[in-house]
Every structure is written in C-alpha cells, then in structure tokens.
Amino acid sequence: MIYAAISIWLMTIVLLAWLVHHLWTTIIKPKTVHWLLLPGTFVAQTGRTIALLLTGAKINNTALMEDDEQGAPATDPHYEPKIPVFGPVIVGLLPMLATGVTIYFLIVKLGMPVVMAAPQDQISSDLPTTMSAFWDQLRALINQAEGTLNAVMAAEMTSWKSAVFAYLMICLTVRLAPFSGNARGHFGAIIATGGMLALIGTLSTKPAEMIEQAWPLISLTVGWLLILTMISLLTRGVVSIIQSILNWE
Fold first, then answer.
1. Does residue 113 lie in a domain region?
2. In 95, 115, 162, 185, which residue has its Cα 20 to 30 A from 106's Cα atom?
3. What is the pLDDT of residue 102?
4. Euclidean distance between CA atoms 236 and 223, whole angstroms
C-alpha cells in the first residue's frame, strides 16, 4: 500500500508544480518566471543531460534559457534514446531525482528548523477506499498547507537562512514540473519507480523503511506546493478581476 501511496503523492507533487508554473507564466512574463527559477532549472537540466548521455540520445539542444521572448529551458522534445521503452523513463526520472536530492540536502542544511516546527500530522500513507476517506484526505491537505506555513513562520532561523531556504525551495519544487515534451516520461518514471520498489519490497523491508524516513520531507514538499498553489490561484483571480474591470466597456 505504501508503494502505491508514494507514487500517487509524487504524481500530486509533479501536478502541483506544473500548475504553479503554468499560473505564474499567465500572471507575469514567462521569461521573468524562468529567470526566477534558474537555480532549479540548472539542477533539473543537469539531471536531464546526464540521462540523455546514459541513454545514448544525441543532445541537439540544451540550455538553461532560450534566447527568445519565452526564455524557457531549451530541450529537444524529439530526442531519440538508444534504450527502447525505458529511455524516456530514465530521461523523466533523473531530472526529478536530481531535484529531489537537492531538496533533501537543502532541507537538511537549512530547513531542519522548519521540519522540527512542522506538525506531527503528515500526509496519509493510506489510500482512500471510501468517499468519506477521500474527503478526509482533502481536508487534511488544507491542514497540511496551514501547518507548513506555520512551521516556516515559527522556525528559528536567521534572516538570510530563511530567505535562501524559501527562494531555493520555490525554485526546486516548481522545477519538478516536467520539461516540454517529456510529461509522459515524467509520469512513467514515477509509476516504474513505484513498481520497482514494490517488487523489491517483496524481498526486503528496506524500501518501505526508506519511504517512511523520507515521508516528513515528502509531506513538507506537498505542503509547500499547496501554499504556492493557493497563493498563485488567488493572485491569478485578483489579476483577472482587475483586468476585467479595466477593460470594462
């Protein structure tokens, strides 16, 4: 059950990151968004480049930002890995893995006060099997976002650490969104990883123990992206209302 839960929550993280990224590019200029996300883009792009090399794909175009109005990361959506089937999965997995490992070290080095101040209630590792359980988990997500925000505000950190931690967490979590042309590889990587861990879990308890140890960090990431999603949706709504009023005839 925990392997299915980790797969679903990782998909949720990617979808939330994708949504936040999309909302930001509709509120402000996409090039400005990509400038702000540059540290996260560097980590994810490095992981993708390594994946392309490992799968034998020819690297035709890779850059942190394209030289145009959009300024999006330069990727080749028509890459051709020499490893069949699993090639796109590897190309989808390594950017997420590189970003996830960087988030882990960021939290360990700068964010432990936030983790310590976070509420004990975390996202559930049980899949909802009834409608009431489903609604309970939705309500728990609101509590998770509130608890994460309270933990960030209550954490005893120096001002520069707070600023660096918040900025890099934003860059890295939002950059968990898939690159253009590789969304299927992203989600395929999550499903394949969950299946592989479940298979290994039939022989050893190590995968389940590793997931349990990482659960507080996953909960913090979910809570962080929920806060960004709420703020982004509220801002997008306010901007739309103002634009409607200004354009009223």
1. yes
2. 185
3. 92
4. 20
How many domains, in total, are found in the chain? 1
C-alpha separations of 112 from 109, 116, 180, 191 in Å: 7, 6, 33, 29
pTM of the predicted structure, to 2 decimals:
0.85
Domain that holds residue 182: 2-239
3-state secondary structure of 134: helix
Q: Which residue has the tokens 């893995």?
A: 97
**248 domain-assigned:** no
Helices (H), the chain: 2-27, 30-36, 38-54, 86-106, 112-117, 131-154, 159-174, 183-201, 206-246
- Render pLDDT for 212-240 as a digit per residue (tens, 0 to 9): 888 888 888 888 899 999 999 998 888 88
Q: How far is CA 3 from CA 17, 190, 208, in A?
A: 21, 11, 8
Taken in order 1, 187, 218, 124, is the CA torsion positive or negative? negative
Q: How many CB atoms lie within 10 A of CB 220?
A: 25
